[in-house]
Write a sequence for this structure.
C-alpha cells in the first residue's frame, strides 16, 4: 500500500510558535519522504536540541532527539552501523555551527551518505533569543541587550571548505522548492548539507518573513521585490562534472563567492555538488570488502547464547 | 621444590628498542616454560626520554613485579643512574664500558629534582657523580658488573661478517643487551634465535642481521665470570599465551560480538582500538566473515555519539578511553542512561587530574565513573583485576549492558595496559552472549519504554520492521516522546533506577565479588592491585601470616549485603588502591557503614609491587603501620 503524506505525521502536539518557519521545514521533510516512498521503518530522523530538535517527534519514522551540538555524531554512528537506513539529521544553526561546529567540519571530511538540515534563524529561540552563529556582527535582534559582537559564520562556505559534497540552501516558506531540495539531498551519494533560512517570528525581528519577501525594499522602490532568488533560474552550474583539480576548484570557489551574496539578493538552491568523491561506506568497503552486505547491524554474533566469532588463529599466534 | 624468581630490567632512551628487546626476552623465557610478568614504564615523549621494562620470570605463578632487580641490561647512562639501587647484591649489571666517565650533567634528560636527590646520596657515600662512581657503589654492595663495549661488539661483528654497515647500527644495542643477558644466565640460544625470527617475521633481512648480532653477543657473554642466577628452562604449562595489556579487552570484544568501536586517540586506551582495527575482519563459524567498524572520531564526544547511534541499530558497540577523554563523554552517558541504550565504555585509567601523568598508572577515576553524567540514572561500573580476567569481563559487560539496557563502564588501567604476561589461553566458550530483550521482530503496537514487571522494556532497533520508536534526552512517555507530566516522571525514574537492584539480584555473586579468603586482617581492593596483593599475601603466608582479600569487581551498584556478609568475621579492614583518596574505601564506608582500619595507597604514577604491599601489610600485622601507608617504589 502506497504511503500518503499523512502517514509520516505523528499526533504529537506541536508547540512551535504560530508562524514559525520550522513548520515549513517539517512539512517539506514529510512531503519528501512520502514522495520518495521511503518506508517509515527504514528511515531515521536524528535531531539536535532546541525548537528544531523537536522535529523528530513530529515525523512518524524512527526519531532520535539527541544532544545539543551532537546530532551528527549520533546520526553517523547509526548510518555506519546500518547503512541500509535513510538518515536525515536536523538541528539549529547554534546547534550545528556553534557548539557542534567541530562535528560539522569532521562530518564533512567523512562524507557519510546522509543528509543534514540546519534550521538557520540567527537566534537561540528556546533560550529566549540570544545571538546565534549566523547573526551578523552589529545586528541587534529583539531580545539582545546590546548589538551582536561576533562575526557571522558562513554555513555554505564552511560546508564547502569542510568537504560536504552536496551544499544547498532552502527557504522555509518555499515548501515545494525545499521539498525538492530535500529529495535531491537524500538521493545524493555522500553527505548533503542543506541550510534552510527559517524566520523566527518571536525573536528575530530583522530577518523576518517580510524582510525575505522584500517588503522594506518595495516601500523604497514602490515595487514588490523578493530578496530570495533561485540559483537554478540563473546560469549558475553547481555540479562538478569531471574529476579534475581545475574543475573542482572552480566549482568550490564559485560556491564560496555565491555564498557571500546577502542583502538585497539572497540565492537559494544548490551551490555545490560533487559525486566524484567517495562516500565513507566506499572507503570502509576498501577495508572490509563485505561491509555493505554484512554491516555491523546485520551481523550474526551468537548461536544459542554462545559466541560464534572464531579467534583461534589469533590465540594460536599468542601461544608460547 | 626449587623456585626461580628472577627480574630483568632493560632501559634506554625512548625509541631505542627497549620494548622490542623486552619482547624478545619475554618470549624466550615464556617459550622456555617460565611464567612472565613484565611491565613497561615510559615518559609522555616520542624519542629520547628514559623508558624501561622489567620482566619478572618464575617457574611459579606470578602476578606482579617486585622491587629487586636480578639483572640489569643497560646501554645508556641514564638507566644506570636511575636504577642502580634496585639491583640485588647478588645481581648483575651489564653496561656499556664506554660510559664509565659520563657524569650526571652529561645526561640531559635527568630531571633536576632527581639529580639533586642523587647528588646528595652520592655525596653522602663519597662518590663522584659519574657512572663509574655509581658502579663502584653497587660493586661494594656485591653486585656483579659486566662491562661491554657495545661499539666494539658492532665493530667486531662488522669485521667478522664482512658487513661494514653493522658498525653504525646502534639500533641493535637492544638485541645485543638481550643476548648478553641470555648468554649470561645460560638460557639455551635456540629459543633466542627463534624469538627473533618470530618478532621480525615480516622483515627476514632484519631478522638475519639481528640473529648475527645475537649470536655474537650471546657467545661473548660466555667470557663473563659466573653469575649465580641461571635460567635454563622449566616445564612448559600447556595452553599458555603471552599477552599484552590490551589483548584481553580487544579479543574479548571480538568474541562478545562488538561490531562497532568509535574512539579518539589517547594513551593508554588507543592500543585497544588499534588492535581491533588491525584485526578488523573476523572469522565466524559457519558464516561469512564479520567485521568490526573501527571509527576514529574528531573527539571523545563524537566517539560517544557514534557509539550510541550504532547501538541504537542493535549493534553491540563500545569505545575505549582514558580519564580526560572520559570527561568529555559524560554528557552523552546521561543520554544513554535516560534512553536505556546498552553501551560499553572501556576506561583505561591513568594518573590525573587533567593531563596528570599521561603515561603513568593510577586508579583515580572510580568515583568519577560512578558519578559520571548529570542527573540520576543507573549505570554499571565493573572492574577487572588482570588481563586474563579482562577477557571474560568484557563478555560480561556487554551482557550487563544488553540485559539491563544501561551504560556499562569497564574499569581498566595503565598498570594492566602496559603489562606483558603469560596466562592461560583465553577460552571463548566461557563467554556467553545474552542480548536481553532485544527484539528480532515486532508485532502490534510498539512502545520502546513500555512499563513492565521487571522494569525492562522490549528493545527495538533502528531499521526493524514495525519497530518505530522515539528517543529523547528529555523525560519521555512510553513511546519516547517528550513528557513533563509529573506522575509519568516518577514512574519513569522508578523504572530506570530499579535496574540497580535488579542488577544486584541477577548478576551472580561470583561475578560481583571474589573472595580469596577472609581472616582477621582482610584486604578490600579493586582492579589491577589484585596481582601484587595476591603475591604479597602468599609471601606472608610462607611466614605463617594469613591475610584475607576480597576483590570487588562490581563497584556500582555496590554489592553491600554480599560484602557485609563476607567481612562479618574480619576485625581489621585494609583498603589497597592506587589513588590518593582511597576511593573504593569511600564507597565501602558509605555503603557498608564500617570503617577502614588501614589504607595502603600509591599515587606516584607507578604500579604497586608485591614487595611494597608485603612490607606495609607486615607493618600492619605488627601494629607498626600508619593508618595511611603511602607507597613510592619505582623510577
Amino acid at each position: 500500500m502506497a504511503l500518503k503524506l499523512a502517514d509520516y505525521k505523528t499526533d504529537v502536539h506541536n508547540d512551535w510558535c504560530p508562524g514559525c518557519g520550522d513548520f515549513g521545514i517539517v512539512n517539506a521533510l514529510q512531503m519528501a519522504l512520502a514522495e520518495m516512498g521511503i518506508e517509515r521503518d527504514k528511515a531515521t530522523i536524528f535531531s539536535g536540541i532546541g525548537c528544531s530538535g523537536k522535529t523528530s517527534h513530529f515525523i512518524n519514522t524512527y526519531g532520535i532527539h539527541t544532544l545539543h551540538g551532537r546530532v551528527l555524531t549520533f546520526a553517523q554512528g547509526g548510518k555506519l552501523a546500518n547503512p541500509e537506513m535513510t538518515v536525515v539529521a536536523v538541528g539549529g544553526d547554534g546547534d550545528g555551527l556553534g557548539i557542534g561546529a567541530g562535528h560539522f567540519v569532521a562530518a564533512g571530511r567523512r562524507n557519510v551518505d546522509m543528509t543534514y538540515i540546519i534550521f538557520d534563524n540567527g537566534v537561540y529561540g528556546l533560550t529566549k533569543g540570544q545571538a546565534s552563529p549566523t547573526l551578523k556582527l552589529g545586528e541587534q535582534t529583539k531580545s539582545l541587550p546590546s548589538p551582536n559582537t561576533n562575526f557571522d559564520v558562513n554555513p555554505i562556505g564552511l560546508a564547502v571548505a569542510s568537504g560536504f559534497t552536496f551544499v544547498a540552501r532552502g527557504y522555509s516558506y518555499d515548501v515545494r522548492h525545499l521539498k525538492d531540495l530535500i529529495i535531491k539531498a537524500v538521493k545524493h551519494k555522500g553527505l548533503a548539507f542543506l541550510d534552510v533560512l527559517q524566520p523566527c517570528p518571536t525573536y528575530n525581528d530583522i530577518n523576518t518573513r517580510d524582510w525575505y519577501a522584500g517588503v522594506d525594499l518595495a516601500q523604497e522602490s514602490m515595487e514588490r521585490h523578493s530578496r530570495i532568488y533561485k540559483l537554478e533560474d540563473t546560469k549558475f552550474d553547481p555540479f562538478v562534472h569531471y574529476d579534475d583539480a581545475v574543475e573542482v576548484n572552480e566549482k568550490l570557489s564559485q560556491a564560496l563567492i555565491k555564498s557571500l551574496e546577502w542583502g538585497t539578493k539572497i540565492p537559494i538552491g544548490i551551490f555545490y555538488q560533487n559525486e566524484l568523491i567517495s562516500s565513507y561506506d566506499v572507503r570502509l568497503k576498501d577495508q572490509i570488502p563485505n561491509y555493505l552486505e554484512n554491516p555491523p547491524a546485520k551481523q550474526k554474533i551468537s548461536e544459542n547464547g554462545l559466541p560464534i566469532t572464531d579467534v583461534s588463529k589469533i590465540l594460536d599466534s599468542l601461544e608460547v | 621444590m626449587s623456585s626461580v624468581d628472577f627480574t630483568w630490567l632493560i632501559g634506554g632512551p625512548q625509541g631505542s628498542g627497549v620494548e622490542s628487546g623486552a619482547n624478545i626476552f619475554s618470549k624466550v623465557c615464556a617459550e622456555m616454560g617460565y611464567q612472565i610478568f613484565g611491565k613497561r614504564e615510559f615518559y609522555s615523549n616520542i624519542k629520547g626520554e628514559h623508558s624501561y621494562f622489567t620482566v619478572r620470570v618464575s617457574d611459579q605463578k606470578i602476578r606482579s613485579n617486585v622491587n629487586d632487580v636480578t639483572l640489569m641490561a643497560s646501554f645508556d647512562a641514564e638507566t644506570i643512574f636511575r636504577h642502580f639501587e634496585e639491583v640485588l647484591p647478588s645481581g648483575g649489571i651489564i653496561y656499556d664500558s664506554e660510559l664509565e666517565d659520563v657524569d650526571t650533567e652529561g645526561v640531559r634528560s635527568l630531571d633536576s629534582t632527581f639529580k639533586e636527590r642523587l647528588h646528595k646520596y652520592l655525596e653522602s657515600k663519597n662518590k663522584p657523580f659519574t657512572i663509574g662512581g655509581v658502579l663502584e657503589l653497587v660493586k661494594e654492595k656485591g653486585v656483579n658488573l659486566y662491562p661491554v663495549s657495545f661499539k666494539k661488539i658492532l665493530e667486531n661483528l662488522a669485521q667478522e661478517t664482512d658487513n661494514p654497515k653493522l658498525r653504525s647500527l646502534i639500533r641493535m644495542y637492544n638485541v645485543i643487551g638481550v643476548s648478553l643477558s641470555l648468554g649470561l644466565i645460560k638460557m639455551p640460544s635456540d629459543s633466542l634465535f627463534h624469538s627473533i625470527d618470530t618478532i621480525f617475521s615480516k622483515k627476514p633481512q632484519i631478522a638475519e642481521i639481528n640473529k648475527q648480532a645475537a649470536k655474537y653477543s650471546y657467545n661473548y657473554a660466555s667470557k663473563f665470570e659466573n653469575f649465580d642466577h641461571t635460567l635454563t628452562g622449566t616445564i612448559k604449562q600447556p595452553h599458555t599465551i603471552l599477552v599484552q595489556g590490551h589483548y584481553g579487552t580487544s579479543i574479548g570484544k571480538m568474541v562478545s560480538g562488538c561490531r562497532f568501536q568509535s574512539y579518539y586517540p589517547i594513551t593508554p586506551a588507543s592500543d585497544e582500538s588499534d588492535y581491533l582495527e588491525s584485526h578488523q575482519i573476523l572469522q565466524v563459524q559457519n558464516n561469512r566473515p564479520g567485521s568490526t567498524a573501527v571509527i576514529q572520531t574528531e573527539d571523545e564526544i563524537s566517539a560517544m555519539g557514534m557509539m550510541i547511534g550504532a547501538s541504537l541499530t542493535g549493534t553491540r558497540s563500545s569505545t575505549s578511553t582514558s580519564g580526560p577523554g572520559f570527561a568529555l563523554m559524560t554528557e552523552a552517558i546521561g543520554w544513554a542512561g535516560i534512553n536505556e541504550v546498552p553501551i560499553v565504555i572501556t576506561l583505561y585509567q591513568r594518573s590525573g587530574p587533567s593531563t596528570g601523568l599521561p603515561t603513568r598508572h593510577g586508579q583515580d577515576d572510580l568515583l568519577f565513573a560512578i558519578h559520571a553524567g548529570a542527573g540520576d540514572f543507573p549505570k554499571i561500573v565493573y572492574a577487572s583485576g588482570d588481563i586474563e580476567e579482562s577477557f571474560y569481563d568484557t563478555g560480561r559487560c556487554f551482557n550487563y549492558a544488553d540485559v539491563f539496557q544501561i551504560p556499562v563502564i569497564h574499569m581498566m588501567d595503565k598498570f594492566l595496559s602496559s603489562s606483558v604476561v603469560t596466562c592461560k589461553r583465553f577460552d571463548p566458550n566461557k563467554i556467553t552472549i545474552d542480548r536481553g530483550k532485544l527484539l528480532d521482530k515486532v508485532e502490534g503496537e510498539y512502545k520502546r519504554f513500555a512499563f513492565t514487571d521487571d522494569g525492562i522494556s522490549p528493545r527495538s532497533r533502528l531499521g526493524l520492521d514495525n519497530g518505530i520508536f522515539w528517543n529523547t534526552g528529555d523525560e519521555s512517555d512510553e513511546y519516547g516522546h517528550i513528557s513533563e507530566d509529573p506522575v509519568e516522571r516518577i514512574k519513569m525514574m522508578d523504572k530506570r533506577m530499579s535496574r540497580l537492584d535488579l542488577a544486584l539480584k541477577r548478576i551472580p555473586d561470583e561475578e560481583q565479588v571474589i573472595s580469596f579468603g577472609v581472616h582477621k586482617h582482610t584486604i578490600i581492593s579493586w582492579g589491577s592491585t589484585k596481582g601484587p596483593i595476591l603475591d604479597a599475601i602468599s609471601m606472608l603466608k610462607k611466614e605463617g601470616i594469613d591475610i584475607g582479600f576480597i576483590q570487588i569487581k562490581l563497584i556500582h551498584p555496590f554489592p553491600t549485603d554480599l560484602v557485609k556478609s563476607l567481612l562479618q568475621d574480619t576485625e581489621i579492614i585494609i583498603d589497597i588502591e592506587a589513588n590518593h583518596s582511597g576511593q573504593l574505601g569511600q564507597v565501602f564506608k558509605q555503603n557498608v557503614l564500617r570503617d577502614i582500619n588501614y589504607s595502603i595507597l600509591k599515587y606516584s604514577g607507578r604500579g604497586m609491587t608485591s614487595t611494597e604491599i608485603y612490607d606495609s601489610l607486615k607493618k600492619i600485622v605488627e601494629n607498626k603501620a600508619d593508618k595511611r601507608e603511602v607507597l613510592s617504589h619505582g623510577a
About this structure: Chain A touches chain B through 65 residues (CB under 8 Å). Chain A has one domain: 5-287.
